[in-house]
Amino acid sequence: MTPFPVFLAYEDKGADHAMAPLVLVHGHPFDRTMWAPQIETFATERRVIAPDLRGYGASPRTSGVTGFAQFAEDIEALLDEVKVETFVLVGLSMGGQIAMDCYRQFPDRIRGLVLADTFPAAETPEGAKARNAMADRLLREGMRGYADEVLEKMVAPYADARVKEHVHRMMTTAPPEGAAAALRARAARPDYRDLLTRVTVPALVVVGADDAYTPVADAEDMHAVLPDSTLRVIEGAAHMPNLERAEAFNRVLGEFLARVDGRS
Questions:
Q1: What radius of gyration, in Å, describes the C-alpha atoms of the chain?
Q2: pLDDT tens per residue, range 155-186
Q3: What is the DSSP string of 232-252?
Q4: Which of 26, 179, 233, 261 has the greatest number of C-beta atoms within 10 Å?
Q5: Closest of 18, 113, 20, 5 to residue 51, by C-alpha
Q6: Which residues partner with 232 through β-bridges?
Q7: C-alpha–C-alpha distance, residues 94 and 117, integer Å
């Protein structure tokens, strides 16, 4: 059995201030460098922590299936280690689903919840079959073919070439074992829709206007069930608006953080 939690590699920038620390959870198949524009911007005013999830980046690789509960437990163990008690939690895509599991497990530590380009429903049987087949393929072939195929869905075809290069590099350097383990976890993930109706902290739902993986309709559905949420659609972006339109993403995130700080 895989021991858990594991100690994650992470970025820890900025200093503790009166403002809430910011914790950033990356998606699949990326690493903590996807948050570079947010770390640079927000570490000037607050502490920002961005881990590499288990199986990604410089964090330990484990075999088999990494359940979302394990991802969340790893994050909580890291925050215990670095002595961050309460924080604003941001997750994009799979990271958003992991953020939902964090709220399920330790809601009292979360002061604000940001769900970007994600959705809460459990996987369909057809989707689970496809994810497990893709996991098999990544283990068999590696990451490059997959990265080439999905690049212009992860980011819009019109995205800046430097953004495309960064996203492609993250995907091609992701460990196939970690990516496959996460895909199997996504195939078996729980349904978080009822959980969202019980979220008691402010929430921000963000989505790229041209996101094909998690379209605006998914974001609207989450916004409708979250008791205290704001919806922001980032024009000129697909699945990764934090990189494709970093300035716009940072602006709406900054507004949300100011609101959370004001409540405190």
A1: 17
A2: 999 999 999 999 999 999 999 999 999 999 99
A3: EEETT-SS-HHHHTHHHHHHH
A4: 26
A5: 5
A6: 206
A7: 9
Q: Provide the sign of the torsion angle of the four alpha carbons 121, 125, 126, 127, taken in this order.
A: positive
In this structure, the strands spanning 203-208 and 22-25 are: unpaired
Q: How many residues does the chain have?
A: 264
Q: Taking the complete model, does pTM exceed 0.85, yes or no? A: yes
**Alpha-carbon gap, residue 235 to 263, rounded angstroms:** 29
Who contacts 259 (Cβ-Cβ below 8 Å, separation ≥6)? Answer: 112, 202
Find where tokens 């990494």 sit. Answer: 66
Separation of first and last alpha carbons in the chain: 41
Contact 17, 47 (CB under 8 A): yes
Secondary structure letter of residue 117 according to DSSP: S
Place of tokens 């195939």: 187
Other C-beta atoms lying within 10 Å of the C-beta of residue 65: 18
Q: Are 229 and 223 in contact (CB under 8 A)?
A: yes
